[in-house]
Amino acid sequence: MDQFQDSKQNGKAEEMKWWGWGHQNKLFPFENRPHFWPWVKFKLGIDFDPTNVTPQFQDSWIPTCKATSQELAELNVICGNLENSISTDAKVRCQHSYGKSYPDLWRARRMNFQKAPDVVVFPKTHEQVQSLLKWAERNHWTAIPFGGGTNIVGGVENRDLLQRKCMIISLKKMNRLVQFNESSQTARMQAGMVGPEVEKALNDLGYTLGHFPDSFEFSSLGGWIVTRSAGMQSDGYGKIENLVVSLRVATAQGTFETMVVPTSSAGPDLNHMMIGSEGTLGIVTEAVMRVHKMPVRKLYLGYLVKEFSQAVGVIRECHDDQTRPTLFRVQDVHETELAFKLKTAPVGLQKWVQKVGKKLIQWRGYQTPCLVIAGFEGTPQEVGFKSKFFHAKMKKTGAFALGPSVGKTWSKDKYNVPYLRDSLMDYGVIVDVAETATTWENVVSLYESTVACMNKKFQSLGVKGYIGCHLSHSYGTGACLYFTYACLEKTKDLSQYYDLKSTITQHFVNEGATLSHHHAVGYEHKPWLKQEIGETGLEALQALKKHFDQKDFLNPGKLMSRDPHEFIRSITSPKVEGNDKASYTRLSSQKNQEIQV
Amino acid sequence: MDQFQDSKQNGKAEEMKWWGWGHQNKLFPFENRPHFWPWVKFKLGIDFDPTNVTPQFQDSWIPTCKATSQELAELNVICGNLENSISTDAKVRCQHSYGKSYPDLWRARRMNFQKAPDVVVFPKTHEQVQSLLKWAERNHWTAIPFGGGTNIVGGVENRDLLQRKCMIISLKKMNRLVQFNESSQTARMQAGMVGPEVEKALNDLGYTLGHFPDSFEFSSLGGWIVTRSAGMQSDGYGKIENLVVSLRVATAQGTFETMVVPTSSAGPDLNHMMIGSEGTLGIVTEAVMRVHKMPVRKLYLGYLVKEFSQAVGVIRECHDDQTRPTLFRVQDVHETELAFKLKTAPVGLQKWVQKVGKKLIQWRGYQTPCLVIAGFEGTPQEVGFKSKFFHAKMKKTGAFALGPSVGKTWSKDKYNVPYLRDSLMDYGVIVDVAETATTWENVVSLYESTVACMNKKFQSLGVKGYIGCHLSHSYGTGACLYFTYACLEKTKDLSQYYDLKSTITQHFVNEGATLSHHHAVGYEHKPWLKQEIGETGLEALQALKKHFDQKDFLNPGKLMSRDPHEFIRSITSPKVEGNDKASYTRLSSQKNQEIQV
Q: How much is the ipTM here?
């Protein structure tokens, strides 16, 4: 039996909470983790209890659908008159209003759904999507593609300044494996397949896509492609753009489709025109993906190192000599501390083993260690070869080998981590992540300066803050640094969140690092895109937008959108938009205050 | 000492023959290769001697430069008033009129330089290139970037239908290694560096780019990038697009520059807007490239297999289990025969060894074998691991191991092969190559159907023809097939050449393969681009062209150019363009006919 959750999938797509992360009835499994909350409370200066009352949904707070019955009838015809092809249900519309960023959940918890779409449509074929786009363009609607709805940069939110009627095109029903070609190691899949569906379909054939982002359980193939997603094992299987062989895209200019060939020199690679385009140029409906045989062997090893930089040096070397692991993570001291605080309490003999182990580790000088996880997947030969040389390198740096158990623990919890945010939000804590990529030369210095920059920010805001980081993906020329930070929210609106968000993103871009390694642009990262790609680059993207979408009806206000001031305005006038009745009061030191929704 | 020519470079850029391939005073080294010509003559039905008189250059046949002295003065100022920054010399202009395709050499040999550029400029900096573009746009000139001039699809030819004055922007003087970053494994290089310059600069630092196309000795970094080139060892080091970290491009809209980061999710990958753009959107002036440590060990192994398909199966498997070689070539029976006919005659004991070897091979049933070359480069561990498992796979298919000597022979001759064409052209032989990529499922059937298709074509033309093929690059999902074909030219113009060219390219595209894996589009492949990328794809490229180059002055008539009938016309009205005096008569069976130039 395989120890790794992602290896065998039940293939079920589930709906997420309308107000938080993940499965409807699931919260972070805090059972038997006695060290976590005391540590969090100390770290963030929390001296009150949480108010973890599940927000209650109220139909009447959702704006009325503005679609006429004639329009709805036409949309229904386009979707083949099939049952449940279109929905104007208040809860369905609310569930398709936001992604899962902190401001999304913040507003959802306050029942602020003022810009809910008018209709959610569920097409089943490429042709239907194509017709929906033509219809929307002709009828002056906006259309926003929606995959798993896990985007955290505002990618699926209605941001139309022209206040047109809005349809969400959910790809949920486009979840078929269309064709599998074992000989060519390719699978043609509909873009609406979510992680578990993709893996179930391929696993049954002995294959895997090898793409396991944190959002794996809910996010979709199409979403991965248009945001240039990276799975946790991307070092081995490739970032999503490395797995795309061919795309089929519905656009207002007609179907855009690339050839199914391994590579070509017939002009610029047109897959890359659509990969990362975030539904602003068209809607990816199908993709031919490179698949891999299910790995015969998986070996995940844990290590402790004294310095973040030690492990960084090792992985850099592994890119030189082709011994890099399939997954490589180094957690800094802060994240390592968090990981230890999240450990379940041992029982029986385990208790004694852990105690001795801890003593040994401390005796060896690892007072504040960094945790390294290296996962090897493949044939026994490949795993044997790579892990042997990797291990030798780690030992040479003086790393303390923890063996395979840490890897197992990590793997068990890896999809649970996003649930933590909801529990922290019950305390009125801002929790956010920011990730970037930079060249090896800058990795350690960027890590250090970012931690310093954010700590300074916390100080200036007068809050106790947490910031931790792990190196999550690596390349021949550099790596991705993934930061998580948290502090109590002192403002009654999102201004403090945006203050933190801009501080860290601006710092990345100033330091020559990218504004995002795998979370895309949406509207949250828009203010920095010009600094990243330059005016000439931005204008080129805008020219493409103009070509594909003359009416600016496709996911307006995102990515290369021509209103650069939009987001800035939302920072500088931090007034909460929307329903004034949404008076969910931020929790302060008053205990057990009720949530008023 | 290293046995491989490409390993240590003298770093010298040389000018090529104006009428043929390669170094000015070099021809294919036929010495001591007694089997070649008798075999060629039999194969192609040649019963006359060659007329290998070197074409003579005549200044007076080059059209007069149309630039005014005012214009020349302005261009000189832009180029910093440096010596030799601009040239209107007839021979220099002729040398920058064409690439090195068969029609290019055919016309050059006939002194047909009717569309020679008016000026060749040699800027030294990005800013100068930027200014030249602004100047050209303002003054209604066309501008064509020129790297090594080895393009074989018409990429550097003046095809302006508006008959504007034309400047060639040679990047020859932009040949500096600007910055080397060992820590990040990156090198910032000017785009005009040619292969030997790139390798010399990096080798001196213990590094290599690992990019060795057939044209390596003359082609340039910028040319590789804008044509999506593939080096012979691309399976190991990556196709050129996999090596690009960041680009700096001069465009009529200003400087286009991407961030130096390993990867990003900030919108579509803008490097890919310029990679493969063939100088139609801008001129790549600098690139930050991912470099590799010089391999400590190189092991090139030869094998014989009975069927092309056997070796194809092995390499496909190697992509599954990460044991693929750095270079992998399978030559079909025809190319293997050619390789054997090109062997130098053995002397002394070698003679006896070869004779016994040949007997043994035949006795083992390899009457018409296929030659396989597998090259492994890297650390001793990596080479050891991969070659061991590769060897086991080859043995399992019943391959006959030839050891490392074949690899050495191949490596010695690898840059000589292109010279063969000139010698064959002395006989009036059409020699051309066509390469494509397709998925594994189709590799063998495409190989077979292409050979059959071309043999049928030869038959319909009433000529004896040769067609051979090798699998030259491979990927997880498929491979590149590289065909070489030849036959006597029966027409007095290029119509027979174009007939063959269209036959094979149309066959590729009809079979779902790409029109080119690494030779780009230029104008020769333009007629098939729409079939490859579809109308929507083509229009998107045209939208980019329109955005970057509203006046269509940058390398007009290429790639996505809006006159799709241009090339078709050149096929259907096969009248030789240009100077009527260019009466270089095709050699027929009359012996020793003089070349009249």
A: 0.93
